[in-house]
Amino acid sequence: MYSLIRKFIFTMEPETAHHFSIQALKIMGQLPFNPFTIPQNPTEVMGLKFKNPIGLAAGADKNGEAIDGFGKLGFGFIEVGTVTPVAQDGNPKPRQFRILEAEGIVNRNGFNNYGVDVLVENVKKSKYDGILGINIGKNAITPIEKALDDYQICLRKVYEHADYITVNISSPNTKNLRSLQYGEALDDLLQHLKAEQAQLSQKFNQYKPLVLKIAPDLAENEIASVADSLVRHKIDGVIAGNTTLSREPVAGLKNAEQQGGLSGKPLNALSTRLIRLLAKELNGALPIIGSGGIHSVESGQEKIDAGASLLQVYSAMIYQGPQLIQELAKQIKLR
């Protein structure tokens, strides 16, 4: 069935297809029944109880418009966003490109979203009863030295409505954002956000885990440095990782030359490497959420075996449909 749907969807430009899919999922979310099952493969991570370890990666539902629809596909958790303090258009269009032969996607969206207040209202309307993460970022017009201000604004606004909050400092499509992954800039950001988390935890009498999302393009010594910062600042989890700037896996293919972050199947080996190196450095100090390139039960299991406790999927679902979520949720064996 999905092969027919995909043929229709792929006649559209990628961003048009995305908007069409969001609208379809919004409708599905309103149905009084669920055409799919929610596979039960329970696990507890960061003190949260997940129905299964397969999550929707950020970027699919930036504004939280279709949470209930995505929730019916079989996911054990959903992450919405990336959201910024105020609405922004993102980078000029076209900004999404399929690499069909490799089941990859290049995007240079640039955190296009309706702003944190709209997302919060959508979350409040949702009836989804699974684990919900909210992914926060900074506005493009905010100077990098003022990035903390944007993250604090978003953290304060989403804290009450999220089960966990992800701090995205690894998108390649916002100028200088990835510089926050290094040295004093990272330590300063984490220190202040942990202090904010402590205040909000006291205010709402509930502790919400704080997760950092990092890039798969980090060198081995940089991964070790990030791991050290994560442990020292008692960050609750890490997502490994975001899209890649590398084109090595898709060299010579149509759209490979487009600027932006590469996601989908070609990212698999690079993200698994990141998980393996992180797991070695962290030595169990905090959990890893594996994201990037998962396209089969085998590729998902590789990430679990490399050290991930949870998995996130997005691009492969575009190519393969919801059945992939069902297969992963039922067949992945947790450590």
Order of helices and strands: HHEEEHEEEHEHEHEHEEHEHEHH
Helix content: 25-40%
Strand content: 15-25%
Distance between the termini: 33 Å
> What's the architecture, going by CATH?
Alpha-Beta Barrel
Query: CATH superfamily, called what?
Result: Aldolase class I
User: How many discrete structural domains?
Assistant: 1
Gyration radius from CA atoms, angstroms: 18 Å
Number of helices: 11
Derived from helix and strand composition plus strand pairing, the structural class reads alpha/beta
- Could you say what the CATH topology is called? TIM Barrel
- Given as residue ranges, the uncertain stretches (5+ residues, pLDDT < 50) are none
pLDDT averaged residue by residue? 96
Specify the biggest β-sheet: 8 strands, parallel, barrel
The number of E-state strands comes to: 13
Strand order of the largest sheet: 3-4-7-8-9-10-12-13
Shape: globular
Provide the CATH top-level class. Alpha Beta
